[in-house]
């Protein structure tokens, strides 16, 4: 059975109205603090006298009856930088990005924690003989390796994507809904196996030295896992549906390695929608049921795909306006900063989402992504992302309302030789710019260098109105110049960063408003938090993973779906391949037509086969593949 993933039409990425407030800038999340997304410390409970004088016995008794009041463990710096568990089943990452076309990652066959397929909880179509053997949807049967040590409770719950008919286009298949936009980036969550578990199919230096060992790599099926899965599913389904015979066959014949082959385009490749991105096929006829196990974990890739797509689309907007208002792309990679650490659902989410954004930009406060990339990808640079020292509201308000100037002065003096960002709206952003920065502390600002500017951060109000008014005030208080394009420019020691209410809609509005008011985009950078890493769903982008080819009794059958109520959901059929036309465009050939020499080489290459990851990409390669093309720098934003 062959499953293939093909991009489908997307729902327009831009959404209105703009999201509510984004998290404020924080240069490095405090260890154990709520700003970092880590566990927040709980204040100890006073005793009956109003103090904290409890003896050990009383404390023990109280804690025994009030477990919720325990002081949680404050994570170390290493835990904050690397939010994933440190065991052998630790999730790993494979990355790519997105935009006006499809940026696709090569997800080398990841077979992951099982999921409740939600609306997809039903028997798949296809030959009745296969349907009878398979029983419930394969995605409903948890792979035994998903229940291994340390993974018993890690179960995700993706749901099927359903877009309005007007938003869908014909697509091909594969057993996983793979969300993709006009451009799609794919980040795949993977889990390594320790070397001693690899067995024969998992050995080899090329695999060991790859950026990350994949979840499917090596010996992933064991007798203990099969037995545990059997017991769980007997109770879960109230029926004996678990394919114990099939898993024992894999354990005995392949020493626990999975007989599957995955072919994919290079990670980070930019491929137009409607084309196949990767295919999955079993290499043993007796394991025809195994291909659909890939669906569940690949569906989870919707999150990094969407983050990377959204991020790259915003990069196109910024590139366009930066060129128009300055004539240069200098500083583009730092124009959109990731403020999303505290706004996401988990440490894992922070690491994966931040990594997806870093494909396109180098500015981030979500340090979890840096650790993830360094550990599982590797880059030529010491770190793939950077930030600057920055104030947040508590570092201002702790001084008291009457001492805001003192707080500002302390911060800029403390960080006099490096860029420093100071949130300035704790009380009155306009007074801060006019009186404090523009008069009281002007001498300190003017003494700074272009390499160590003061970055003023508004953090409330209508984003466009606030940015324009702040620029207007600063333009009166400090000497401005005009660049070669005729746009106004603040002195090099002064810049602003807008970190509130920034999404793809408001970003477009702000840069357009600045252009109309003759302000260069050189003056500003943006920070996005919840809108970048959290305010997204799997329905925002769309892709399909369906069965396209089956061999039954030695005969190949082209398989596809063609719902009478929705022609746009018709899937591609047969063996699929990806090619380039003489004009350089991409085309997907169905029904095995790509075997003909006249169409040239198939662009899908084997990345995983029978337990071995055969191809890996460094983070630098992914970034290179995802670069904006010259044609994208001049086209309209949307």
From TrEMBL:
Species of provenance: Podarcis muralis
GO MF assignments: cytokine activity; identical protein binding; nicotinamide phosphoribosyltransferase activity
Protein name, as recorded: Nicotinamide phosphoribosyltransferase
Residues that span the membrane, as ranges: none
CDD domains the UniProt entry points to: PBEF_like
Catalysed reaction, written as an equation: beta-nicotinamide D-ribonucleotide + diphosphate = 5-phospho-alpha-D-ribose 1-diphosphate + nicotinamide + H(+)
UniProt superkingdom: Eukaryota
Compositional bias of kind Low complexity: 136-147, 164-176
Gene: NAMPT
